[in-house]
Amino acid sequence: MSHNISDNGGNDGAGDQRNGDQRNASSSRDIAARVVNALENDEGMRPYGIKAEAYGQKVRLWGIVDVLAEKQRAEQIALSVPGVEEVVNDLTISTDGRITDSGTAFEAMEELALEPGVDLKRVGARSEGGTVILEGRVEDQEEKDAAMRAASKSRGARNVVSRLKVEKADK
Hints:
This protein is α/β, with parallel strands linked by helices. The protein has two domains: about 15-95, GMP Synthetase, Chain A, domain 3 (2-Layer Sandwich); about 100-165, Histidine-containing Protein, Chain: A (2-Layer Sandwich), CATH 3.30.1340. The protein contains four helices and six strands.
């Protein structure tokens, strides 16, 4: 009869598990601290005091920002931090005072007008329940992307949906 006996020096393995948990907690705290630091080093994000917590390589962001573009920017910054694989973006978009869909649409059109890469003769915006819907025609993907970025800067926008069609303009 043979017996498999292993000697782990009296260690039941529980200490190894606790040490691993401590290392993971320390690593998670380090990642969260690096994300917060990256957000604070970004001039546009600094005023918001965004908070972060990490669970391994997954980071959760929370706090309040003014517009959708800032929420998206915070997520991009967090994803750029080494060790971050996923971001749960729990940032809240909050404007000063109430803004209606017509106000959000107006803001979106103002932002589109400020974007040099967008031709307002062919692009329009409306808002439904805080979702800005872009409609019309654009010449290329670059113009479509520029319109999406511009609309995401409008107060009241919680989401931006493109129904833009890419078509070369007749010359």
